[in-house]
Every structure is written in structure tokens, then in C-alpha cells.
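hey m, so remember when u said the C-alpha cells were messed up on ur end? i reran from scratch. heres the input so u can diff it against urs
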Amino acid sequence: MKGVMSLITGFSLYVAGVINEVTVILVFFMFLDFVSGILRGWLTKSLNSTIGLAGLIKKFAVIVILAMTAGLEYFFVQMGQDTGGLIILTVSSFFIVNEGLSIMENCAQLGLPIPPVLYNSLEKLNRDPSGKEQAILRDPLLDKIDKAVLLKEVKQQHHEITIQEDKKEEDVK
């Protein structure tokens, strides 16, 4: 039943023009980027769930932007301005290029041969103006924290706060 509903919903969205071929290509590129990122992390022994989750959140945000773009496109069509799907095509194309660069970067870090011109361009794209590499870094302090001890401390503090609140209520009576 779920499969039939998914098929009907997907077909309806396609017919309504919200999802077009370019959007499908973007989702496919997102999938390829995610898989190539996992492979890169596994092969370079730098697989990190925090970075992976951040990547998934970013991909979800791209879908939110596409949904907003589709809403904007729908608004213009309802106002009598036929955009011909140009707005969603432009936004989708931007994100396809972005995903393609990320896939190429992952492949370069996997050791696949990348033309020097593209490799140098990728290297420049990954540096901010101050020359520092852009990366999501986990705070080293988080690795030193013992979660069990932290949970005990939080429970103890919660218990103490509850006792203090009970005493205040008794004093008020």
C-alpha cells in the first residue's frame, strides 16, 4: 500500500511540475556524493558520523530550498507569469554543479586521476581567503568527556534542584 501511495504521490508531483528531470538528477547527484563521501571516509580511515550527519542535514536543507523555489515558481504561475520552470531549473542546476564538485573532490581524495587543472581548482575552492582549510571539526574537549560521568552529574544536579524547589514550596506554606 505504501508503495502505491508513493508512486501516486511521485507521479502527481511530476505532473504538477514541482519535480522535473533536473530535480531528479540533483537527487541522484546527492546520493552519489553521499556514497562517495562514505567511501572516501572509509578508505582514508577518517569516517566520522558527525561530518556525515552534517552532510545529510545540508542535503536536506537543499531540498527545503528546492521546495521553496517550487513554491515561488507556483506563485508566479498563479499570478499569470509563465516562468517556464526557469527558476527551479536555475536553482537545481546550481546545486547539481555543487554536488558534482563535491563528488569530484571525493574521487580525487580516493586517489582517482583528476586532471591537474581541475585538481588545482578544487584545492583553491577548499580554502578560504585566509588560507585555512574549511572543515567541520569536532571540539577535542568532547572526546575527553566521559558520557556516563556527565549523565550522573546531570542527574545529581536535577535531584538537588528538585529538593531545593520542594523546600521552597514548604517554606511558602
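this time it looks ok to me. The radius of gyration is 24 Å. if urs says something different then somethings off w ur setup not the seq
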